[in-house]
Amino acid sequence: MRLGYRPALDGLRAIAISGVVLYHTGGLIPGGYLGVDLFFVLSGFLITTLLLGEWAEQGTVSLGCFYRRRALRLLPALFVLLAIFLAVAMILAALEDRPLSKDIFGVAAGIGYFSNFAMTGEPMTHAMPYEIRHLWSLAAEEQFYLLWPPILFVVLRGRTRLALVVVADGVAFMTLRQLQLYLDGASLQRMAFGIDTRSVSILVGCLLALAIALPRRPWLPRSQWWEPVAVGCLLAFLLFDLGRELFVGPLLVFSVCCAVLIVRALDDRSRLASLLALGPLVFLGRISYSLYLWHLPVFVALGINRQQVELTAVPAVGIAVALAVASYYLIELPFLRRKHRPRPAAGKTRPPRVRAARLAGTSV
Prior knowledge:
The protein is an all-alpha fold. It contains 16 helices and no strands.
């Protein structure tokens, strides 16, 4: 199966960011925070697909090129956000004569990708500034990708089925870890922001990519029968906040539903793919990363919170979208153009055991 740019995947990103934004807008969607997990499943699927494609073409995976692409994708917009946040914090600190230590720590955690540790309290004890608490998800994702490409490279020396078994075991282990923490009475904060609990969504995306890369996929044509179930479950999860109970099975079910929606989005004949490929959704999906970065600082500055819907919510969303558009065109795109996939080395042939999907032009 060979993939080019699929607008429907940007449509799924639009659904994900809409859930997160509406969750932070007075809790309009109580379970909207699960949009992060939809992002995670998409990310695991797309990145694993790209790595499989590189292995299939070159017989190896260039870790240096992988991390360079990730840096160009994520760091420029993040650095601009943190620089502006710190500048504003310094001005306010000077005007109000208050310490800057918490803000400086938050910026360091954002740059160093350990915000999730600060959020769980293990091992960090400093609280993150509320304006940039949402950076925990970027930290959890990048910590996962420090380990996943080398692991995938090792297991691919065997065969794709071995990688599939390894990831399936990882999903099972992480699910048991969630149950253990739940039974031990771990706090919601510990379970919600821990890399050993929330990364199950990324693993489901990785599992999907490996399953699609197999030579035989008899389940793929039958996925259409699961589409209405997946859509219904997705809406139900977004409309209810399950609290700690999310981590005793529902999160895994939600992630599997997201995987089904990805499969359906890849089928150009499906009605879901047509809906997700609508222009406004595709555009919103393209700016979703910048919108994720900017929406919470804007909301905090204008007094928007998750407890009560404010009259300023609509202009706050408008300002966040405007900043996201500016960030996408002025910061993200110039750096995205510098991303180049490594060319196949001379004499390399495609390993006979590996069949992988190839993404050309999809931004991850």
